[in-house]
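Course assignment 3, question 2. Fill in each field.
Student: A.L.
Task: Predict the tertiary structure for the chain below.
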Amino acid sequence: MNISATELKQQTHLLNHIKNEDIVVTKRSKPFAVIVDYEKYQELLQELNNKKIEKKLDALNSLNAFNLGGKEYAQIKSEAKIWIYF
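Answer field:
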């Protein structure tokens, strides 16, 4: 759904559609912001965080930094996955 900022101010009932559909807010006919369901927003943040952790672990792996602080790469990676879910 696309809507101008002015329309959104005038028709706040459109926010009821957030669970079903993201809303793209436009200003002067150009995308300005996106309104998404809060749960979806949290999932997107978690996904981004997971990718950042994986990227760092992959970088360590590519540097052959297997033995870090007395822990093997696989152990660090498995512990990181535990942290991701909590």
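Instructor remarks: The chain has two domains: 2-36, 39-85. Residues 66 and 75 are 10 Å apart (CA to CA).
Grade: pending
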